[in-house]
Write a structure and sequence with these properties.
heterodimer, A: alpha/beta, 7-stranded mixed β-sheet, 8 helices, about 30% helix, B: about 375 residues, alpha+beta, 4-stranded antiparallel β-sheet, about 40% helix
Chain lengths: ~300, ~375
């Protein structure tokens, strides 16, 4: 029985090599569409609606135990499962790439449980589940970004108690965070936060953008796509509706700024994308390549 | 030349095969059956059922086999399966006074009605490796039946109820209307948590974590000496009241371990001193877990009993947020996932800070050199 299942999964994998053209398949029998039962999906959609109505506010929801580990995207997976429909085209990225093992695993989970078409092209996707990046190609109206969130509470490192941080949000009391940023500048001359850089959403709620590099923060501001955030272990959902202002915290004399590289992508020559640094030999030589693999490939195809 | 990382799918498929091989081990050794695990590793099965919140010995045994004996992985497997099950109804509260006792001890009274029943326990085994067990296919116990006469079949009153009759211990009453319990697997944990919710969370909490917390209270972090008022293990029947019938029917029996801890309470100006309770309950035979749970339950009642909160075991958020081993294990191990992007962002930041520091140092160096030169010149002049 066990062996049979293993072989079955292997075959299932072999039938679906890397695909770029969206194609729907039949979901595996034995599970409801997108794994979760309809009641659960409805509960999650209600939480999402509340989150959209109060941009940046963390809505507690009855997160379920998923067949993937906590911390590996269970929040994002539940949000995607609750919103995905048969005609959707799903893209899953981790670190900007479609082919890292975790992205592959989550994409495969949805292919098995929904049969929806999957894609690696940002422009072809209707739902993009992501961990740690926002694609370089601007999103458009009608697209939904689903972020996987490890720790949803922006004040958590400053105040470990949830009871306390909920009070701070209720009173919009974010002085702790301002002091933290100020102390960074006093000590180091700049703000010592490189990713998961705190933002204020719709001029009200302090929000963690999930651990994207601050390079991606400006993309959240007034984005035409709907941005949903799911934290499975912490059982919170929050949202940034389309065209909502998202401001990265800063000071008048120390304005927010993003990373710049002295390099270009070694593969597509881009100078405007987030670059991954790769060590290529024993002497520690480096090269830099786009972290967004779809962006990089699209540029190379255009150049060819 | 660097080639963009590809082939994640192939790698995953191959890892499945490698895992199946690892799980099976040497094929010259017979494969374990689910029944063998269920019957011969009953304490592992109990732990998996308890921390997965699903009473099914066969499925727990299957999970243990599938997880190569990694109990936290087995708990995870069983929980993921549990999520897909419908929740049909809540049972009538189980009455442990009607338990068919297989083991029952009290550390507070020498003898109690129903007696002390030692039953099966490792407590008084001298921990010497029993090499006779290494000889396979032994037929131990086949000829001589287990001393069944020790096991009571009469209902056995709970020890703490005797203290209750005297008013020396706080009463524990079924709340008005007997509300349906909160379901931690369907609703998010929020604070302050009720005691019922705390107990639910502790019951599925990690045994090792609760053990360490309970131990910390014994060593002085919120010390409040507990007495093991009673520990009992046995079978209880589970009943439901189907709507169409309107009366309770038995739907089966489960094995449970219950622990009632008795702690002192100094009393206050308005209340006489009395004993307070800590409660532990788990599926199967799980004494260590039930006792740790009882001690931690009592510690968590600090704010209700107006005790000063000074130690981790008393801190509700600390205990409940960190007791779940499936959550903890997943989050710890997610560090294995790629973090290239965040790390790159940190690298870039660190290089930026170092560069500006270097620039400052260089600047300061130049100034110093200039100062020295100036000083030398003026020194020469003076000379």
């Amino acid at each position: 029985m066990m062996m049979e299942m293993d072989t079955m999964e292997t075959q299932e994998y072999q039938e679906t090599p890397e695909q770029t053209a969206p194609a729907r398949t039949e979901p595996e029998a034995g599970y409801n569409f997108a794994y979760l039962d309809e009641q659960t999906k409805r509960m999650i959609r209600r939480a999402i609606l509340k989150a959209v109505a109060i941009p940046g506010y963390q809505v507690p929801f009855g997160g379920r135990e998923m067949p993937l580990p906590y911390g590996w995207g269970t929040g994002g997976i539940q949000v995607t499962a609750a919103i995905i429909g048969q005609d959707d085209v799903l893209k899953v990225i981790d670190q900007g790439s479609d082919d890292t093992t975790n992205a592959v695993n989550i994409r495969r989970f949805f292919r098995r449980t929904t049969g929806v078409a999957t894609t690696e092209k940002t422009t072809a996707a209707t739902v993009i589940q992501t961990r740690h990046r926002i694609p370089e190609i601007p999103l458009t109206e009608g697209q939904i970004m689903v972020y996987q969130v490890p720790i949803p509470e922006p004040l958590r490192w400053l105040e470990p108690s949830e009871t306390e941080t909920r009070k701070y949000h209720a009173m919009a009391d974010y002085g702790l965070m301002s002091v933290k940023l100020y102390e960074d500048i006093a000590r180091l001359g700049k703000i010592e936060t490189a990713y998961d850089y705190p933002v204020i959403v719709n001029e009200r709620y302090l929000m963690r953008p999930s651990p994207i590099p601050k390079f991606d923060n400006p993309k959240m501001d007034k984005n035409p796509a709907l941005q949903l955030f799911g934290a499975g272990r912490e059982k919170r959902i929050y949202a940034v509706p389309p065209y909502t202002p998202v401001k990265s915290l800063d000071f008048e004399d120390y304005p927010f700024e993003i990373e710049h590289w002295d390099h270009r992508c070694a593969m597509c020559d881009a100078n405007d994308s987030f670059l991954d640094e790769v060590i290529v030999d024993d002497q520690g030589s480096r090269m830099f390549v786009c972290s967004d693999t779809d962006y990089c490939r699209t540029r190379r195809e255009e150049q060819a | 030349m660097y080639v963009a990382v590809k082939g994640g799918e192939k790698a995953i498929a191959q890892s499945y095969e490698a895992l199946a091989k690892m799980r099976r081990g040497d094929t010259a050794v017979p494969e374990l059956s689910i029944a063998q695990i269920r019957e011969q590793m009953s304490l592992a099965v109990a732990r998996v059922m308890g921390e997965a919140s699903l009473y099914d010995k066969d499925l727990a045994a299957l999970a243990i086999k599938q997880a190569s004996g990694d109990l936290i992985e087995a708990i995870f497997l069983l929980r993921a399966y549990r999520t897909t099950l419908p929740r049909l109804m809540a049972t009538v509260p189980v009455d442990t006074a009607n338990m068919l006792i297989q083991r029952r001890i009290s550390a507070t009274f020498k003898d109690v009605p129903g007696g002390q029943v030692l039953g099966a326990t490792y407590d008084y085994t001298q921990r010497l490796l029993d090499f006779s067990l290494a000889a396979e296919a032994m037929s131990v116990g086949e000829s001589e039946p287990v001393a069944q006469e020790n096991i009571t079949t009469e209902a056995c009153p709970r020890v703490l109820d005797f203290l209750n009759a005297e008013g020396l211990i706080e009463p524990e009453l079924i709340p008005e209307g007997d509300p349906e319990p909160f379901d931690l697997t369907r609703e998010p944990l929020q604070f302050p948590a009720s005691r019922a919710l705390r107990l639910q969370s502790l019951a599925r909490g990690d045994e090792g974590f609760l053990l360490a917390l309970a131990y910390s209270t014994q060593r002085g972090y919120a010390r409040n000496h507990p007495f093991a008022g009673e520990i009992r293990y046995g079978k209880v029947s589970v009943q439901v009241v189907p709507e169409e019938l309107g009366f309770a029917i038995d739907i089966g029996e489960i094995d449970i371990t219950e622990c009632q801890m008795v702690n002192q309470f100094v009393g206050s100006q308005i209340e006489a001193p009395k004993f307070t309770r800590g409660y532990g309950l788990g599926f199967g035979h799980c004494e260590r877990k039930a006792m740790a749970m009882g001690v931690v339950d009592r510690a968590l009642r600090a704010s209700e009993l107006k005790e000063e909160i000074t130690a981790p075991a008393q801190m509700e958020e600390f205990v409940l947020y960190h007791a779940d081993n499936v959550e903890a294990s997943g989050f710890l191990q997610h560090l294995k996932l790629p973090h290239y992007v965040d790390f790159q962002a940190e690298l870039s930041l660190l290089r930026g800070i170092r560069a500006s520091l270097d620039a400052k140092t260089a600047e300061a160096g130049k100034l110093e050199a200039a100062d020295e030169q100036a000083a030398e010149k003026s020194g020469k002049k003076a000379a």
